[in-house]
Amino acid sequence: MLFFLALSISCTFLCIDAVAGDGICSTGASATTGGCVAYEHADFDGRHQDLRPNHIKTYVGDRMNDKISSFRVSPGCRVVVWEDRDKGGASQAFGECQYIGDDWNDDISSWQCECR
After folding, report:
1. For residue 30, which of 21, 20, 39, 22 has the smallest C-alpha distance?
2. CATH of the domain at 80
3. What is the pLDDT of residue 21?
4. pLDDT > 70: what percent of the chain?
5. Counting Cβ atoms within 10 Å, is residue 95 exposed (0-12), middle (13-18) or buried (19+)?
6. Which of 10, 14, 100, 109 is the most buried (most CB within 10 A)?
């Protein structure tokens, strides 16, 4: 119990909410943009959209709406997504994700790159 408590306390900003069991995410950070990158397909493939640290895309645009499948993040950053534009509907936080899982795949309309 003490080990679990210490682990929970040390996990602050970069703790990522649970991801669907079929998601492929890690605590790694490989974006070289200084922010976050959303990709149209799994494995960081297809069209992409860059977002500077601590900025929000209230609408991803018609080319990326409901098409995002993976994210790269810079060190100290995470992604927060919403299913609707203007940060509406359900939300979820992700770190680096090769595939965000079936629950969120192709279901994102707004997102934020949150960095400390």
Report:
1. 39
2. 2.60.20.10
3. 63
4. 82
5. buried
6. 100
Specify the number of domains making up the chain.
1
Per the CB < 8 A criterion, the answer to whether 38 and 45 are in contact is no
User: Residue 9 is inside which H or E element, if any?
Assistant: helix 2-10
Segments forming the whole domain that contains residue 100: 2-115
Give the residues across from 39 on adjacent strands. 48, 70
CA-derived radius of gyration, the chain: 14
Strands (E), 1-116: 24-26, 36-41, 45-51, 55-57, 70-73, 77-84, 88-94, 96-99, 110-115
